[in-house]
Amino acid sequence: MIESFAPVFDGDSRVLILGSMASVKSLEAGFFYMHPRNRFWGTLAEITGDPVPESIEGKREYLLAHRIALMDSIKTCTRKGSLDADIRDVVPSDIPAVIAACKIAAVFCNGAKSYEVAKRAYPDIDFIRLPSTSPANAGAWDKSKWMAIKKYLV
To answer: Which CATH number fits domain 2-152: 3.65.10.10, 2.60.120.260, 3.40.470.10, 3.40.30.10?
Structure first.
């Protein structure tokens, strides 16, 4: 059984981005999207126009400064390796609790598995599915859909 990280958010967060479950590399590092080939942090840098800090604490501060909340749609699961296709025994995260604690204007799902889990657990919430930033999604990568986040950060 693996467990996701605590969500990153504060009362000023406007955008919630949901991953599925942290990769092995991220779990080893102790924070979201720490695989060196994952496009998540680079994509956020393009959206915000600011470089992303290297440290975990810097990344946490970066998210909050840009009013971005971040969490996984899966609280716990079983999985061998890092592929979403291998995820089993899913317990969803409490997404409504984070939404209620913030000023969330939009909820984005980083990839199909995140969207699938979130929508099944909370069908009344509007989730926007984005292409996964995972290196396993290299062939279908289209960052233009990610740019929709920008309008919620002003």
So the answer is: 3.40.470.10
